Amino acid sequence: MKNWQLQQCQNCGIVKIISPVPAGANYYSGGIIMGSRYELNKNLAQMLKGGVIMDVTTPEQAKIAEAAGACAVMALERIPADIRAAGGVSRMSDPKMIRGIQEAVSIPVMAKCRIGHFAEAQILQAIEIDYIDESEVLSPADDKYHIDKTKFDVPFVCGAKDLGEALRRINEGASMIRTKGEPGTGDVVQAVRHMRMMQAEIRRLQSMAEDELFDAAKELRVPYDLVQFVHDNGKLPVVNFAAGGVATPADAALMMQLGAEGVFVGSGIFKSGDPAKRAAAIVKAVTNYQDAKMLAELSTDLGEAMVGINEQEISLLMAERGK
Length: 323
Prior knowledge:
Blueprint: E1 4-8, E2 15-20, E3 28-29, E4 32-33, H1 37-46, E5 52-56, H2 59-68, E6 72-75, H3 80-86, H4 95-104, E7 109-114, H5 118-126, E8 131-135, E9 156-160, H6 163-171, E10 176-179, H7 189-206, H8 213-220, H9 224-233, E11 239-241, H10 249-257, E12 263-265, H11 267-270, H12 275-287, H13 292-298
Helix pairs in contact: 2-4, 2-12, 7-9, 8-9, 10-12
């Protein structure tokens, strides 16, 4: 990952990437010293807000995603649907495959490591990946501890199915949160459940008196400062994307209307009949998620969608991995 510096335009307020800075260095945003590497990582993740991140397995797929308007791609040897179908142990992708995708596109490239597998994360940082996803899609390496993400310069993405999980991952150093959903199914119900749960718990914290927040922090198993932030701001301190089962423009618009700040799409694009057209439609749906007429146009003649798996037919719930 390049150690980018951010600078805010005094006239328009837009934050721009201007040059690399040493890891751990102080940096300036709008004339204010922000101080920590973590703050820089959070701001880098903010730049993906309102975008779509697509799973890709080849440089050709990565180019399709970039042409469709994806804000980033997730480099994987197998998309979640294939991981689920194959079974067995799923691990970090081959660095050679990841480098091929990095060389093919100009947008940020993400890659997954197993939950708790800090050595895989070290390898991904060494090959200068832009973001690491500590992902439940892969087989967990540690069933008790997640990676201490504060020891890394590269920003981390983590999944969560409720507010407690989200805040615990943020406390560990995650710069971006996504719903877990149920990857590889094409069934958005779990992502909806997780987003609704998170939003309901945020509203509950907002309704609490100041003295009740200490008990809430104990209940959620997170520091008081994180609970205080959610209480005061009505949102997480990092960007919150939707993921897991998003397969259509309507799915993407649904998640945005429920409060997501962007969308991950895995199997839904490259398991469909016309990946390029579907990818472009989902990107436009995220931008125009409140325009029903536009969504109707985007949903028309997309070709065959991926064959989904109903949640009642699933024997392994990946969303239950890593709490």
